Task: structure prediction
Amino acid sequence: HRQEKFDRAVEYGKKALKIARQMESIPSIAFSYKYIGEAFNNLSEYDSSFYYFEKAADLFKGSPDQIGYSSILTNMGGNLMQLERYDEAISFLSKSEKIKMELQDMDLCSNYSAQALTLYHLGRYDEALSYIDKIHSLENKTHDVLCLSKALYTASRVLYYMKDFEGAYETHLKSIEYKDSVLNTSNSQMVAKLQTELGLKEKEAEIAKQKIELLKQDVRNNRILILAGILLGLLILGFVAYRQFVRRREMLQQLKLDQ
Result:
């Protein structure tokens, strides 16, 4: 199912790219490249992902959106790390980090975790540990708790590979703690949403019940009016019949007197 979802993402991304080219919209072309690259990355097709990220980077490079450009460089570094091209990966990740630092953008957790893991693979253990320290330094600065959780998990892996089992254990626990906080927040939001929807449905049901009662009352009122009309009609008919009876009787009495 996941494979199918991202295959469709690639398909739609290429359709969007075609339309963007027809419109000659450079920003739309750049974002189409970026989204296709992300879809291929999720499919673990890192060569294809890097190709589209590189296309996007060429267009983002001279644009005002330098944060977007730095994020693409981070993604390219991640692709190269997965392809075990570690030296090239560090080059892209370092460049991305430099841009983000200049822009004072604190969204660095994915960058730091990728650098820590890449430096470990290069055997540059002290530098890898320095990036793990940088990940910890983000704990009170970043609002992207899920990204921080993933970065701490990567840090725990690096510490485990370096046989710092105590540090790996403590860092892994922090990763779980942040992940749980995200899940708890999501669950609370879902509960609040369901309660709101339930409250609305109960309110709608109450309104519908009141409308039904009003309709019933209208029916009862109409029935009373109809019955009152029928009764009034019967009284009038009775009164007319009585008047006719009295008049005939008077006419008969008059005839007798005349005879």
The first helix runs from residue 2 to 23. The mean pLDDT is 80. Residues 149 and 179 are 6 Å apart (CA to CA). The two ends are 113 Å apart (CA to CA).
